[in-house]
Amino acid sequence: MAVRLEQLISATRESVARRKSERPLAELEREVAERGEGRPFREALAHPGTSLVAEYKRRSPSAGVIREGASVTEVLQAYERGGAAALSVLTEEDHFGGSLADLREARAATSLPILRKDFTVDPYQLYEARAAGADAVLLVVGSLDDDDLARLYEETRALDLDALVEIHSEEELEVALEIDVDVIGINNRDLEDFTVDLGHTFDLLADVPAGKTVVSESGIVNREQIEELEGVGVDAVLVGETLMRAANPEFATRELCGGEDTLVE
After folding, report:
1. Is 212 a catalytic residue?
2. Torsion sign (Cα): 149, 150, 155, 160
C-alpha cells in the first residue's frame, strides 16, 4: 500500500518525540554553540550554470531499496570528486533508512555544504541538524501550516542555517513567497501519489520573482534535462536515485555536471 504524506509526517512526529525524551534540547543547544561557522548552502548554488545537489539515500517509499548499505563516506566523496556543488543527506529513519549518524559522517567526509533532508516539523530538529553538521534544512510547505512554516523559517535564520523551502503548487508557492524565502525547491514529485512530472518546474518557475534561488527536485536523470532547466533559469537540481543507482557515482555525477570523464577504468 502506498505511503501517504500524512503517514510520513505522523512517523516523523513520533520519532521526534522519542528523540526529545532521550536527549534534552539544552544538550543540543550546547553543541550548537560549540560549532564553528557553517558552509553557505545557498551561496554554493549561485555559481554560473545549474549546480548539482547530489543526494545520499538508501531507499524511499516510491522506489523501495535503492542502495542499501552503501558507504556514506565513499558515495559522498565520489559526488564531491564528480563536481557536485552541495550534498543532501536523508535522515528520516522509518521510510528512507537514514539517520543523524549519516549526517555526522557526511560532515566529516567532505568539504561541501550539506542539506539535512527530512520532514522538519519541530524546532528541535533544527538544533539536531546544526549540531550534527548540516548547513541547510528542508521545509516542505505541504507538510506544515502557515504559522509553523513561518516560525521554523525564522528559527533557521537564527541558527545560521539555510532553508530549502519545497513547493509543489501555485498555492504553496504563494505561501513561501509570503514569508520571503530565499531558496525555493520545486518538487516535481507529488507527495500524495508519488507521480513525477518535470513540467511542474517549468510551470511554476514563471511565478517565482527574480532574486530567488530555485532548485528543481525529482525526475532528473540526464544532462539534457538539466540543460533544459538551465535554459529557463533554474539555479540548481537535486538528484538522488539516479546517482545512488549508478555503478560509478563519481562518473554519473560528472556526467550530470557536464564535465568530461577523466576516470581511469
Report:
1. no
2. positive
* Active-site entry in 166, 172, 241, 250: 166
Could you tell me which residues are beta bridge partners of residue 215?
185, 236
CA-CA distance, 265 to 162, in Å (whole number)?
A: 38
Q: For residue range 175-191, list pLDDT tens digits in order.
A: 999 999 999 999 998 76
Q: At residue 264, does pLDDT exceed 50? A: no
- Marked catalytic residue, from 15, 57, 216, 241: 57
N-terminal to C-terminal alpha carbon distance within the chain: 42
Is 155 marked active-site?
no
**What letters, b where the CB count within 10 A reaches 16 and e where it falls short, cover 82-93?**
bbbbbbbbbbbe
Annotation says 265 is catalytic: no
Q: What's the predicted TM-score (pTM) here?
A: 0.92
**Predicted pLDDT at 145:** 93
The strand pairing partners of 185, in sequence order, are 166, 215
99 is catalytic: no
Asked about 166 being catalytic, the answer comes back as yes
Element (H, E) at 184: strand 183-187
Domains (range + CATH), the chain: 5-257 (3.20.20.70)
Residue with cell 516539523: 121
> How far is residue 250 from each of residues 171, 182, 259, measured CA to CA in Å?
38, 30, 11
CB 214 within 8 A of CB 233: yes
